[in-house]
Every structure is written in C-alpha cells, then in structure tokens.
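Entry type: protein chain
Record version: 2
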Amino acid sequence: RYNLAVRLLNGTNANQDPSEAARLFTLAARQGYAPAQRQLAQMHLRGQAVARSKVLAHAWLNLAAKSGGSEAATARAQMEELEVSMTAAEVRQAQETAADWFDKGR
C-alpha cells in the first residue's frame, strides 16, 4: 500500500491522485507503518488531500516516533521542530490524540 501511495502522490508510473494516496497512507499508518505515518503528517502540514492540521501532523509523528529505528529518530526531530510553532494546548491535544489512537490500535 505504501509504495502505491507514494507513486500516486508523486504521479510516478501512475496518475497523480493525492486523495487516493492519502487513503492508502492512512491504511498503512493505522497498521503502524512509520514511513506512512510520517508521510501523512507531512500531508496534514501542507493540507494536501487531507485537513491542514498541526495537531494531526504531530499526532502521526508521535506514533512514528514510537516505532524505533531511524524512522523514529526522524519523526522525533520533525515533531520537536513542529512543536515550536504550536501552542501548549495544541501539543497536549496532539499527544492525547496519539495516545487515543495508540490505545485503539489506530
């Protein structure tokens, strides 16, 4: 799913379809796939085929940061960079959203 979503997002060897890419990234992200979680966070930051939301972007990065490995380190760095532009209430809301998704299995 993830690879097809990347191709759809970029229009590589497929027609560009950001909405379908977002759907596929969401499916992979809900299964705990950190690269999809990070990509979905970036889409939320840009408002690309999904709602523009720092809170949702932070929540996805938070989940990716829990994955371990290099993806986790990159997600943590992106999350910390994002927090600079967020209020304390937004960060708290994002953390609660991520915790809720994690508890529910996304």
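Comment: The mean pLDDT is 92.
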